[in-house]
Design goal:
The chain has 122 residues and is of the alpha+beta class. The chain contains 3 helices and 6 strands.
């Protein structure tokens, strides 16, 4: 691990919010009505049955149900220095950079590349 002087001279980073995927979600009309009256396992079974019926609907186009379709963006927090998914690591002002009771962590950085997070950087 680095010494405190090395930590202070280390590269810095900010956290970027990056679009990594997009998905389509569909909410069946009956989903909201029975949500609170069922367990998660029952909801999963009900949704699996509904998906099967919806696939049949797509094949024959006879259903008049009002289904709700949504595009859902999927974001990740990324480190601006290494562009990997940001996972925080807390550094302390100790020779090995490890936080202890006497030396609490005072620097947040990227666990992937070690860059210190800039203040206000995401």
């Amino acid at each position: 691990m680095s010494t405190p002087t090395t930590i202070m001279q280390a590269k810095t980073c900010t956290i970027k919010r990056v679009l990594v995927d997009a998905k389509v979600e569909i909410t069946p009309p009956s989903y909201a009505y029975g949500y609170w009256r069922t367990t998660p396992q029952e909801r999963q079974r009900n949704l699996e049955q509904w998906v099967k019926e919806f696939q049949d609907f797509l094949r024959d186009h006879r259903s008049q149900d009002a289904n709700i379709l949504s595009v859902v963006p999927v974001y990740e927090k990324r480190c601006s220095a290494c562009d990997k998914e940001y996972e925080a690591f807390m550094y302390a002002d100790t020779p090995d950079g490890v936080a202890t009771a006497e030396h609490p962590a005072i620097h947040e950085g990227c666990a992937s590349c070690g860059a210190l997070k800039e203040k206000g950087g995401g």
